[in-house]
UniProtKB/TrEMBL annotation:
This is EF-hand domain-containing protein. It comes from Adineta ricciae (Rotifer). SUPFAM superfamilies: EF-hand. Pfam families: EF-hand_7. The keyword Chaperone does not apply. InterPro entries: EF-hand-dom_pair, EF_Hand_1_Ca_BS, EF_hand_dom, Recoverin.
Length: 217
């Protein structure tokens, strides 16, 4: 209906402001033309400029037709929605896509941490980890969750390798440093970073259809 869309101070989510452009130019590797092209595409999919959870899930499912993406998608959605207003605006969207496309390992691990840290207090605990591991199992269609593969045992292993037997709380830096130095941790905690490192080009490992897909934002 004839909504007058100019509530003062609130920015119109369909508009790419100079400030947005500046933020995106500074924090991604995209050129201005590329940003405008992404913006055009974003508005095509989300004419209101607001990507909500339902649409996000819809998009996400396309990447994981086999697995149950819902839970994991919820986690990713929250990580993208940095201002916590329950929708993803274009800037939030492209910053996250930029990290998936061009980010270095550390940046990707930062994003992985944000996915774990759902309440955004800079800390993840056992419960957070168990939830995400279950969601990742769903995503990968992993049926076997017994023995060493049980989420609980996985978290034991993670905590052990992060040297966190005493307290069960992991802060961002511990997470990132731990994953940087420990490939197994990285594989468990941030599987989408596992194939990224350039050094691996020298060892043509057997092509793995599951890990090769690091398109998952
Ligand atoms: Ca938001
Ligand atoms: Ca937290």
């Amino acid at each position: 209906m004839g909504n007058k869309a100019s509530s003062k101070g609130k920015k119109d989510p369909t508009v790419l402001s100079d400030e947005d452009l500046k933020t995106l130019r500074a924090n991604t590797q995209y050129t201005e033309d590329e940003i405008r092209a992404w913006h055009f595409g974003f508005l095509k999919d989300c004419p209101t400029g607001k990507l909500d959870k339902k649409q996000f899930l819809h998009v996400y499912r396309r990447f994981y037709p086999e697995g149950k993406a819902d839970k994991y998608c919820n986690f990713v959605f929250k990580a993208f929605d940095t201002d916590n207003n329950n929708w993803i605006d274009f800037t939030e969207f492209l910053l996250a896509v930029g990290v998936s496309q061009h980010g270095n390992l550390e940046e990707k691990l930062k994003m992985a941490f944000d996915i774990y840290d759902q309440n955004k207090d800079g800390v993840i605990n056992r419960k957070d980890m168990i939830k995400i591991i279950e969601a990742m199992y769903d995503l990968a269609n992993e049926e076997d969750r017994s023995g060493d593969k049980s989420p609980d045992r996985r978290v034991d292993l993670i905590m052990q390798r992060l040297n966190k037997e005493k307290d069960d709380v992991v802060i961002r830096d511990e997470f990132i440093q731990g994953c940087l130095r420990d490939e197994l941790l990285r594989k468990i905690l941030a599987p989408n970073t596992a194939v990224v490192s350039d050094e691996q080009e020298t060892t043509p490992s057997s092509p793995s259809p599951t890990t090769a897909e690091n398109e998952n934002m």
